[in-house]
Amino acid sequence: MKIKKLFLQNFRNYESECFLFDDGLNVLFGKNAQGKTNCAEAVFYLCTGASLRIRHDKQLIRIGAESARIVAEAENRYGKVLIEADIYENKREIRVNGTKISKNADLMGHINSVFFSPGELRLIQDGPDERRRFMNISISQTSPAYYTALLRYNKILDQRNVLLKNKDVELILDTLPVWDEQLCKYAAIIVKKRAEFLDKLAPFAKEYHAFLTDGAEELVIKPDRRYEGDEAEIAKTLMQRLENNYEKDLRLGFTTVGPHRDDLDVEINGVDAKAYASQGQTRTAALALKLAEVRIFEALAGEYPILILDDVMSELDLPRRKKLLKCIADLQTVLTCTHAERVLYGAECKKIRIENGRIKESGK
Questions:
Q1: What is the C-alpha separation between 348 and 298, in angstroms, rounded?
Q2: Is the domain 117-302 a CATH 1.20.1050.90 member?
Q3: What is the pLDDT at residue 226?
Q4: Does the pLDDT at position 121 exceed 90?
Q5: Cβ distance 256 to 275 under 8 Å?
Q6: How many angstroms separate the CA atoms of 43 and 11, rounded?
Q7: Is pLDDT of 345 > 80?
Q8: What whole-number distance in Å separates Cα of residue 45 and Cα of residue 2?
Q9: Which whole number is the average pLDDT over 222-229?
Q10: What are the extents of the domains in the chain?
Q11: Any idea what DSSP says for residue 61?
């Protein structure tokens, strides 16, 4: 997958600008707070229909404007793709090749992307919410069925949690089995897809981590294995666990078991990375996970995604910068940094200098 052209109008700090990308490494450079990350964010938005930085789309609209527009001309293995997003105060319209789509599931897969920034250290350092978020975003781009199941599961989960706060215990116990049957149906899809994803991710991440550390450290990803078997067996196991936790759920007022509570363990040299890894180790482990994600996209979609590296080089030492450049040599990459000459080390690339939401220089 390649993005050829990106047009931004009243998006973040861009009034009107058009980016032309090469198939390889594209470096957006300039001082801080000039709009480099905003451009990278726009690419990711057109891939997933969501931003990693904000919750409400209206925050993407340039101050003083009534709407924002993002347009990408891209190519995947099936041919050319045109994706357009018009964002307004209270709504948005997204079109793929001129056809308006009504849900994000219809957007997923036309252009895939993997996004990495220093903030992704949360993957290792923070709680299970961040690791579930990582899996949800990644799997959804290659599996509309997963994305749909996730939406429906979360909706039913919300309704179940509301029911658990009802003061009529008899009503709750009569109604829970109805909700739980549907909840387990979608949970089984989520659990199965996550297991398949992590089975692929773990060896790739281990391989990249060994390369980045010259074999000095071993990265091991240990998935949550509370559920085994096919979807029917997973649904049956979860149904039993839900029934066993009725009393606890009633007491606490929320659902205490299910894939919304799952996690995965990350270990470096046999030690829990969340508790004991240094900043440097955490950064390398998170980067290895993201590079592994790229490989999974290639395996599942038949082509590499667009890799977005936002201000990553400044956080790596010289040997790991050079190793990263080797890892991304065959990928279309959008890389942001403050000083291009300090991170390229002779790598062939297209350089685009950004100043105050405008392209000031563009070329090899």
A1: 23
A2: yes
A3: 82
A4: no
A5: no
A6: 12
A7: no
A8: 15
A9: 84
A10: 1-112+305-364, 117-302
A11: B
Mean pLDDT value across residues 6-35 = 95
Tell me how far the alpha carbon of residue 41 is from its chain's centroid. Answer: 12
* Residue in the structure block whose two tokens are 């350092």: 125
* Chain segment 20-31, per-residue pLDDT in tens: 999 999 999 999
3-state secondary structure the chain: CEEEEEEEEEECCEEEEEEECCCCEEEEECCCCCCHHHHHHHHHHHHHCCCCCCCCHHHHECCCCCEEEEEEEEEECCEEEEEEEEEECCCEEEEECCEEECCHHHCCCCCCEEEECHHHHHHHHCCHHHHHHHHHHHHHHHCHHHHHHHHHHHHHHHHHHHHHCCCCHHHHHHHHHHHHHHHHHHHHHHHHHHHHHHHHHHHHHHHHHHHHCCCCCCEEEEECCCCCCCHHHHHHHHHHHHHHCHHHHHHHCCCCCCHHHCCEEEEECCEEHHHHCCHHHHHHHHHHHHHHHHHHHHHHHCCCCEEEEECCHHHCCHHHHHHHHHHCCCCCEEEEECCCHHHHCCCCCEEEEEECCEEEEEEC
What's domain 1-112+305-364's architecture? 3-Layer(aba) Sandwich (3.40)
Report DSSP state, residue 62.
P
For residue 202, name the pLDDT band (cuts at 50, 70, 90): very high
What region, left, alpha or beta, does residue 291 occupy, with left being phi > 0 and alpha being psi -120 to 50 degrees? Answer: alpha
Q: Residue 333 has which token pair?
A: 């990459």
Note the pLDDT of residue 54.
85
Residue with tokens 């897969």: 109
More confident residue, 298 or 344: 298
30 DSSP 8-state letter: -
Q: Work out the burial of residue 317: count CB atoms within 10 Å of its CB; fewer than 13 is exposed, 13-18 middle, 19 or more buried.
A: exposed
Residue-wise pLDDT for 143-187, tens only, equals 989 999 999 999 999 999 999 999 899 999 999 999 999 999 999
Whether 1-112+305-364 and 117-302 share one fold: the answer is: no
Mean pLDDT of the 52-76 span = 93
Mean pLDDT, the chain, rounded, equals 92
